[in-house]
Amino acid sequence: MKQQKQISWHRTNVRWIFLALTCLFQVGCCICIDFPSVLASQIQSTFNVGQKDINYLFSIYSMPNIVLPFFGGIIIDKIGVRSALLIFCSFLVIGQGLCVKGAQDQAFNLLKLGMLFLGLGGEVCLSVAQSALLTKWFLGQEMSLAFGVQITFIRVGSVIGANWLPKVYIWYGNSFTACMMFCFAFILITMFTSFIQCLLDKRSDERDREQMSQQELSQLDQQPPVNCSDVKEFKLNYYLLSISCVCSYSAFLILQSNGIRMFKIRYHLTLTQQTFLYSLPYFISATVTPIIGYFIDKIGKRPIFLIVSGILLLLSTIIYSKDIDCSIQDECFSLVFLAQIINGIFFALYAPVIWPCIPLCVNANSQGAGFGIIGSIQNAGLTIFPLIVGRILFDENAISYQHMIYFLGFITILANISNINIYFYDIYHDNKLMRPTTKLPEYEIVAEQEEQTDTTRVD
C-alpha cells in the first residue's frame, strides 16, 4: 500500500503566509525605530536639545549592536531562531515603554535608555532572526524576491512613520507622548506577530520531522555544532560584502536620518516638501524592490548589480554636494527631488542584492552567525559615523550640512571599491554570486511501499 506524498510547507504557498507575517513584523519595528529622524524638530522642542543629540540617539541605538548581532547570530544557531526572536522582541517592548515614560516625564535620558533597549532587540530581530527565518523558508527558491519584499516593508514602516507621526503630534495638541503611545501600539502588534511566526515555524518543523526516515533524522541530529571558530572559515568575499554593507547603508541611512532637517535648513523647503522628499526613496523601493528581487533570482549577476547600485549612490552624493542658491526655491526642490529619486533606485537595487549574497558565502549551519557578523559591522559604522556627523553638525547651518555630504561621499567611495573587489573575487572563485538562484527539488517525504515481490532473490 502506497502512502500519499507530503511536501514541506517550505515548498508550498504557506511560505507566502510566513512572508506576509515577516512583512507585518518589519513595519511595526521600523515605525518605532525611525521616530528620531521623522520627529527631530519635535524632539528638539520637547526636550530642548539640538540636532547633534538626535544623531547621538542613533549612535545609542546602534552601539550595543556592534557586538550583539554577532552573539545574537551565535545564540540563534545555538538555541534556535524562534526562542531568540521572542527573547529579543521583549527588549523592543521594554524599550518603547521607556520611550513613552521619557515622553511623559520630558526626560531625555529615559529616551536614550529606551533607544538602547530598542537597539538591543531591534537589529537582532530585524536583521539576524528574520533573515535566518527567510533563508530557511525560501532557500533555493525565490530568496532574492523574499528579501526584496521584506526590505520593501521595512521602508513601508518608515513611510508610515514619516507621514503619520507628525500628524499624530499635531492632532493631540503637539504631544510627543501621543507619538510614543502610537509607536507602543505597533510594538505590541509586532510582538503578537512574532508569536504567530514562531508557532507556524514550529509546526512546520514538527511536520517535516514526522515524515523523515530514521536515517534522515540521524543525519539532522549529527550536524556539527555551531561555535565561534566557524568564523575562521568565512572567505574574503564575505568580509568584502560586510564593508560594502556598512559603507552603503551608513551613507544612505545617515543622509535620511538628517534629511528632513537638511531640507529645511540648507534648501529652505516647506514641511510638506520635506516629508515628501524624505519618503520618496522608500516609495520607490517599496514599488520596485520585489520586481528587482524576482529578476535577480532569475539571472544572478549580483556583483554587477552591486557595482551599479554603488555608482548610483555616489551620483546622488555628487548632486547633493553641488553648491546652489536656494533663493530660487523651485530649483532647490528639483535638485533634491532628482537626488532622492536616484537614492530610491539605489536602495531598491542594493537591498535585494546584498542580503541574499550572505547565505551563498557561508555554511548552512553558520547562517545566523553570518548575518550576525555583518549586522555587527554595520552597526559599528552606524554608531561611529553618526557621532562624526554629530560633530560636523554641531553648528547647524547650510555649510555644515554640505560638509556632512562630503563625509558621506568618502564613505560611498569605500563602498564602491569594495563592490568592485567583490566582482573580481567572484570571477576567480567559482562565480557563486554571478549565478541565478539554484532551484532545489521539492522536498517530498515518501513512505515505504508494501508491494508483493517474487520470492526469488538475486544477490
UniProtKB/TrEMBL annotation:
Bilayer topology annotation: Multi-pass membrane protein
Spans through the membrane: 56-76, 83-103, 115-133, 145-165, 171-200, 236-255, 275-296, 303-321, 333-358, 370-393, 405-425
Keywords: Membrane, Transmembrane, Transmembrane helix, Transport
Major facilitator superfamily (MFS) profile domain span: 1-427
Localisation per UniProt entry: Endomembrane system
GO-annotated molecular function: transmembrane transporter activity
Chief localisation class: membrane
This protein's record includes keyword Metal-binding: no
InterPro entries: MFS (IPR011701), MFS_dom (IPR020846), MFSD1 (IPR052187)
GO cellular component, one term: endomembrane system
Recorded family membership: Belongs to the major facilitator superfamily.
Protein name: Major facilitator superfamily (MFS) profile domain-containing protein
Organism annotation: Paramecium sonneborni
